[in-house]
Each structure stands twice: as structure tokens, then as C-alpha cells.
Amino acid sequence: MPADFGPESPLPAQPTASDATVAAVLDALAFNDKGLVPAIAQDAGTGEVLMMAWMNAEAIAETLRTGRITYWSRSRGALWRKGESSGHVQRLVEFRYDCDGDTVLVLVAQTGPACHTNRPNCFFNAVRDDRIEVISDPVA
């Protein structure tokens, strides 16, 4: 586990970014032809990779300004505030992007399961011993 993950890492109460910071982040990102970048959500306390979704400029700006993770739903064609229907919200701990600016990493404090299947994360299908194995059950 990287040194910056763990219970000893302080979780900010509610990160808010200034308009100047939001603009600088948006300028640094390389959005695809649909105006999106992939966003990987990782638990800030454990380092567990929770899910992947898409963000557009509006979702990134809202995430940085409010501290509540907001994605772009391609199926709905609208902003998706994580947990708006399930209550399983993600609170922003830290916002990062890669060296090419084409992928975002959001370190989050997760409430409840991250996956819409009610599993802790979306990566529960594993290829093991030449077969696909489901390695996580839904949370009761």
C-alpha cells in the first residue's frame, strides 16, 4: 500500500477548489473526442480500486468545488452524483491526474458499496486457473 494511504492520512472536511484551480486542472486534462476522461475511484484509506467511470469538465468542476464525487453518465447523458439514489456516496479526499492528463484518479472516502451490484468494488470478476471466478459477493 502506498505511504499516502491509510487511516493516518487526514481526510479533509470538504475540499473546495477556487475557480482558478478548477480552470488550471481543466486546462491540464486531455479530454477525448466526446469531452470525457476516464476516472478511477480509489479508497483513500485502504488503497482499494473501487470503480471506473467517466468525467466531463462539468463533473470535474463540481467534484473539485463541492467535494462530492460527480461523474458523467453516458447512458443517461447527464451528471451522476455518486450515491444520489443508493446513498453510497463518495467524498473527495484528493484529486489527481496522470502525466498525460488523460486519466483522472480520485481518492475517495466511500460510504457503503461502490458498485451498483452492491459489491464493495466493481472489479469482482477474476480470471484464475483458466476460468472466470466471481471473487466478491454483494453486501447484505
Would you kindly provide a written description of the structure presented here, covering whatever features stand out?
It is built from 2 helices and 8 strands. The protein has 140 residues and is an alpha+beta fold. Helix 1 runs antiparallel to helix 2. Pathway: Amino-acid biosynthesis; L-histidine biosynthesis; L-histidine from 5-phospho-alpha-D-ribose 1-diphosphate: step 2/9; Amino-acid biosynthesis; L-histidine biosynthesis; L-histidine from 5-phospho-alpha-D-ribose 1-diphosphate: step 3/9. Keywords: Amino-acid biosynthesis, Cytoplasm, Histidine biosynthesis, Hydrolase, Magnesium, Metal-binding, Zinc.
Which terms would index this structure?
hydrolase; single chain; two-stranded antiparallel sheet; 140 residues; Phosphoribosyl-AMP cyclohydrolase; alpha+beta; 8 strands; 2 helices; Ubiquitin-like (UB roll); 4-stranded mixed beta sheet; 14% helix
